[in-house]
Structures are given as structure tokens and as C-alpha cells.
Amino acid sequence: MIRTFIYIILTSSIVLAQERDIYDSLDIYEGNNLENIIEQNLEEDNNSTIDDELRQFEEEPIDLNKATIDELRVIPFINKKIASNIIKRRKKTKFSSIDELLFVEGVTPQHYALLSKYVTIRSVHTKQKIKVSFLSRMKTEIEKRRGYIDGTYLGSPLKTVNKFRISICEDASNSFFISNIKVGGLIEKDPGEKDFTNHSTGYVSFKLLPLNSKIIIGDYQIETGEGVVFGGANKISKAGVIITNSLKNRNTVYPSLSADENNYFRGAAMSMQSGDINLQMFYSNKYINATLDKKGLITSIDKSGLFRTESEIRKKGSSKEKMIGYNLQANIINNLRIGSSGYRTAFNNSCLVDKELLSYYSVFQVNGINITYNNKEYELFSEIAIDKNMATAKNAGVIFSPQKYISFIAIIRDYAENFQSQYSNAFGEKWDRVQNETGFFLGARSSIDKRLWLTFYYDQYSYPKESKILPIISNGNELLISSEYRLLKNYNIELRYRSKKKTLCYEDLDIHGRKMMHAGQRVQRNYRLTGKLNLLDIQLQNRIEWIKVTQDLHKREKGLLLSQTLKYSLTKSIKMICRATVFDTDSYESRIYNYEDDLPGVFTNSTLYGKGLHWYLILRINLHSKFYFASKYSQTIKDGVRFIGSGKDVIIGDRLSVLSAQIEVKL
What is the pTM assigned to this prediction? Predict the structure, then answer.
């Protein structure tokens, strides 16, 4: 079966590539680069909300002719250099087309393909003054898990999301007091939950003209500096840092309309601009989901967002946090910006921060300073933060771009072992846990003749503090080497090698048969070949990936994945996407992550292990210029198993089938 699949993959694309000669480089760039960014992001962060964030930017694109540098920087794929160059160009001449981004210094075809859908050009003669959008999404598993059968899960396996947005253009309010009014709301239910409004979120935002300020009431996100103080809900993966040529480096507050039930603030935020100075002030007061002991102390904060059982429901809203914070940014001289940000957070119940020392805090306080400087060829950035116990976390880096198609990036980080922060999300191996880590990252990306792109990064890190789980000073490293080549005018191939080494603790038996723990190395190597063919109405993508895992020197595992994807536009309004993937790995330790297409605005990274077949079919229909429908059916079939999953999530049988659908209306 696998040999047959390999033959189909290698021959189908080559034959078709010889038949047609139509090439859309931007589509290929967008697919390859977005997949590389999102795939690693989801692999390292199961709670990532980057799909919600990008969807929001797509529905409310930034105006190239009016946005400030900070507003442009909200888009994850725009670094400070590109934002500055966009401002410089429009001072000379306004943008009349999004395609003119390709003439902005620093914008490569890869950048353009990633960010073009998140920007727009609004004409002063635009007839539509009020925009309204509504989206409804559902997802359910066909086979029932044990928790539904025995009644442990109180609700149905159906997952639902419903959200709306209303936007009133600046010249539609006819007011000298407020403008640019935006309203949004969302209700969501996870599988197994009983209440269809288990999670709700919303916001109202507007510009207050007399004070030249923007106000958000409701739920919002904050990002400042390099993410050491406020890091937002999402990170940019290591591959994304190289592809987008940027780190965090955003100083912004924006409305949140995410299904994530943890990573947001609820209250009010104000952003005021006066010349070269921008001041943002925040207040948040929200319930949190936590496990309390008999003394009423928080032993853990639940971030799963699942409230299916009686015990899970008891955690919901069991405590409360109040936060007050600020972010001040000032352009001192041309291209030099210095800023300061900080917050004070108080919990209703004291929170466990060190399980070994049994340390509890009820108040967290962090303040930081960040600085950025950029010119034509390079950008310097750094942030340092200090908590209430004087522990520090700091990082610094440089991006060097001597030419348009050549860039280098280097980042160092040093996060103290006892640094305590609630909202950090900074560059590192653990990102959202900015603590007990030092490291050095070096990356490069270049194009030789615009047909060949080379990408490289190496990250060396260590955890200086010993723990009960890992009673030694541990370290690790990660290496990625990738090459993308336009073999034919309509056919791209990518070769990628990625290795990751880290120290883990293993359980073993001594000579007397007693259990003992010892440290060992886990080494993982992935080899991948991807081919992508673009035709007029058809796009084919094939992938072969091989993985080797060595644990503690003597245990070795391997795995293989083969996939073929077909995207076909039946008509201008109907598009079909299908993929078949076969996989064969020794166990979960040699699992392979498989990024796949999904409903619009949804990103999925399946974890495949064992032996079997995974396939899906997606149908996207534009029933009207303002009405969209999409549906997906996927199925995983495993060879030689009697059940899938464990505990209350067990499914009796060898397959898991999932059906999802989405409708969207834009007025």
C-alpha cells in the first residue's frame, strides 16, 4: 500500500506539471509559509488562538493609507521595518492598490502573500458605511466516547461557535465626538458541555476624537515590547520568526473575540496618542477557573476550557483576578523608540507558584522597559522586566537585512528561575512560561535567484534550576534547515530537515528491581519532502515525512507519513479540497504532526501515530456574494486496534469520524 502511494505521489504531480504552464507564485508562497508558521505554532501550543486572531484581521483589514505604525504592527506578519517603509511610501504617494506593497522596501513575495489579505485600501467614495458579519460553526464526532455513554459528560459531543461583528466607518457616524465604532460578540460550547452559552465574550470599541484616543470596553488583548511583560495570546514559532523576519515587537491593545476561555482581559482599555508619545492604560476584572484546596488556596489554574463533568464545573469561576496596567511608548529620535509597561494583579485566593517550596502569592507585579532601533539594514530590540521579588527576565536581538532577499536574526534570552509573571509570552522554548531558561537563537533566510530560498535556524537553550521532575541542570537544542525551489514555473518543492535534542527523566529498574529515575537524552529527527503544483483550477500537494526518535541512547523508534492533497475549483463559487494520508509509526513517541486544511478561519494540526489512514473532504461554497458555506468530513482509521483514546475519552473501535460545517453572512 505504501509503495503504491509513493508512486502516485511522485508521478501525478510531475505529469501534470508537464501538461500546464500556469504559475501563481503568490499562492504557493502563502501556502508553504503559512503552513510552516502555523504548523509549528500549533505543535508547541495546543491552546493557540492564532486562527481566531488571523480571522479577525481578515474580517477587519487595516487601511494602508490611514494606519499608524502601531496599527500596522498588529498584523503578525508585518515587522517594524516594513511598517515604517509603508508610512514613508504613502507620504510620497497614496496606495491605490494592495499590489503596490510589492514595491515597498523589505516586502518580499513571501511577505506579500502572507499579509495581503489583512490589509485594504478604503476609498473616500465607499458607499458601504456599516458592515455586519455573522458566523456560525458546528463540529461533532460521529462515534461516541465512553464519557457520553456512561453519563459522565453532561452535554452532547457537539461543539458550536456563534459570533457577530458590526463596524461603522469613520465618516458614517456624523459625529465630532466619536467615530470608527465596532461591536462584536461570541458564544461558544465545547464538546461534552451542557450549556450552549458556556463561554461568552464581546466588546465595544470606538475612537474618542477630542482626546485622539481609542477605547475598548469588554474583552481585549495586550502585546508590548518583546512579550516579557505582556505577550498576548499567541507566539510566533521559530520558523515564523525567520519567515516573517520579526519577533513580537508590537505595542498594541486590540479587541478580542476568541473562543479561548483564558487568554484575554475583561474590562476597559484606552490608548491615547500625542505626537510621538503613546499611552495605553488597562483595567481588567474577570473570573478564573481554578482548583482550590480545603484552605481556599489555588493549587492550579485550569486552562483547558472544558466543563463537561461535575468536577470540572466546580472549577469554573472559582476565583477572580483584578489587573491594572499601562504601556508608554515614546519615539525619542528618528527610528529610536523607548517604552515602559507594567501591571499589578491581585487574586481573590492565594496562588501556588512553587510546588517544591510551597510558595503562594496573591499579588503579582511586573514592570519592564523595552527599546527598539532600526535603520535601513538592521533592527535592534530588547526588553527587561522585573517582578515584585526583584527577579528579572530579559531578551535582546538584532535583525540584519543587507539586501531585500537576505536576512539574519540573532536573539539571546535570560529568564530567572524564580521570575513570576502572569501574562508573559516571550521568545523561548516554552514561550508562555518565561522562567528558568537561558538560550541563544540564530537564524537566516536568503534567496539566490528568486527561485531558490534557503532557511536555517539553530536554537541552544538550558534550564539552570534543578527540580524534582528533572533533578539536574538540563539543556537542549533545535536545528532546522529548509530549501524551497521552483523546479518548474508551476511546481515548487521543499526539502526540510529538523532535529531536536533535549534532556528528559526516565524511569528504570536497578539491579534489585526497584524503580529509579535517571536523566537521558531524547533526540528527534524529521526529514520532509513537499511538492506543490499550481494549475488553473487545480492545486496538488504531496508530502513524504520520515521521523527517527532515540531515547536514552538504547530505545529507538521511527515513523513514516505519506499524503496527497487535491484542491479543485469546480466553479468560481465552489471549491473542493481533499487529502489522503497514510502513516506508520512505532508509537506515540514517534508521532508525526500533520497540518491540514479546515473550515475558513480554522487551523488544524493532527497528531498521527500507530498505523492507519487519515483522510478528509472539504466543500466551500459561495452561495451569494455575501453568503458563504463550508463543510468538512474527516476520518481516521487505525490498523489493529480495538479502541482509540483512553479513560472517559475512549472510543470502542478502530475509527474516529468528525463532521463540521460553517455558514457566514457578510452585509
Answer: 0.85
